[in-house]
Amino acid sequence: MLRFLKTLKQKTAYEFQRKFNEPLWQKKFYDHILRPKDSPEAVAAYIWMNPARKGLCKTPNDYPFSGSFVFDDWRKTFSPRELWQPPWKDQLL
Questions:
Q1: Are 38 and 84 a contacting pair, CB within 8 Å?
Q2: 38 and 81 fall within a common domain
């Protein structure tokens, strides 16, 4: 996986860097293995909300790279019973 990501980043970032004079990719990535107590729906909702949480849009549907636009009302589709956040965020609190 690491070798694949390194190669992908190298091949895609070169032209972008040359054209825009700024990096395309962040330095590292974060992965998380879902534990039995983790709700897949809550984790998906957390990921899907990333652009809105960072202020790139008001709702995930407004973000052009959010994936499928099959769902008209994202709140009905992604309404997990409890909110999820990565374990490393708990350590920051």
A1: yes
A2: yes
Judgement on whether residues 37 and 23 belong to the same structural domain of the protein: no
Q: How far is CA 18 from CA 13, 21, 22, in A?
A: 8, 6, 8
Give the sign of the dihedral formed by CA 41, CA 75, CA 26, CA 1.
Answer: positive
Both structure tokens of 16: 């972008």
Q: Domain span at residue 37?
A: 32-93
Q: Could you report the per-residue pLDDT of 78-89, keeping only the tens digit for each?
A: 666 667 777 767
Residues 47 and 24 in one domain: no
* CA angle at 57 for the pair 54 and 59, rounded to the nearest 5°: 105
The answer to whether the predicted template modeling score (pTM) of the entire model surpasses 0.70 is no
